[in-house]
Design brief:
Elements (H helix, E strand, L loop, with lengths): L9 H20 L2 H8 L3 H7 L3 H13 L6 H9 L3 H17 L2 H14 L4 H21 L5 H5 L1 H23 L8 H16 L5
Helix pairs in contact: 1-2, 1-4, 1-7, 5-6, 5-8, 6-10, 6-11, 8-10
Length: 204
């Protein structure tokens, strides 16, 4: 752990220190005292900017979520394509670009769900809602999807996101190295896997 120093103001130093600690040890594992020490401020300064440790965690998470970049051209293609395989590839490309390159955000999301359950869902939706809505609309309306999938398309989108996260967090356990964040091969493998799963009933 290193002290956060420099010319940035105290609020930004607190956010930076909290981001580093929360993403490493989670909400429960980080104390405001440790955050204040890393930010080179006193405890009172932390609470002058943030009313509680939870408010500070939410501010950190939102700061990281703001860095998500969902490409508008790909979002448009999701709802306009008539081909399931192509739609899945686009969805996985969007998820990979948005999530795989931000390891701190992935860890913060993990901790937020463990610590707060679904209470932060409005915050997730604020930044991921457009992707969720476009992909859900496609999966819900496509006549190529099996009835089981069409019955709960949002669950499918969550499963897709989990696939991307797992690929970029558990991959080293099986391959011994981290995949490229922009690997088209990884995107194709994910989309082909889910295409096979979603269409298996039509082949029987």
């Amino acid at each position: 752990m290193t002290l956060v120093a420099g010319a940035i103001n105290s609020r930004e130093r607190i956010l930076q220190a909290a981001r580093d600690l929360f993403s490493e040890v989670g909400f429960s594992g980080a104390s405001t005292r440790d955050i204040a020490r890393m930010a080179a401020v006193n405890d009172a300064t932390v609470y002058r900017h943030f009313s509680s440790k939870k408010d500070l965690f939410i501010a950190v998470l939102e700061t990281e979520l703001k860095q998500l970049n969902l490409r508008a051209d790909l979002l448009l293609h999701v709802s306009n394509t008539g081909d399931l395989r192509s739609a899945l590839r686009i969805i996985f490309e969007l998820l990979t670009e948005a999530l795989a390159g931000q390891p701190r955000l992935l860890r913060l999301l993990h901790f937020s769900v463990l610590e707060f359950g679904d209470t932060l869902e409005p915050l997730y939706y604020k930044y991921l809602g457009e992707l969720l809505d476009n992909a859900t609309e496609y999966l819900g309306s496509s006549k190529q999807i099996t009835p089981l999938v069409a019955g709960d398309p949002r669950t499918m989108i969550a499963a897709f996101a989990i696939t991307v996260v797992a690929l970029h967090t558990l991959y080293p356990l099986f391959r011994g190295r981290q995949p490229s964040n922009t690997s088209m091969r990884s995107i194709e493998e994910c989309s082909n896997l889910w295409y096979a799963l979603l269409t298996v009933n039509r082949l029987q």
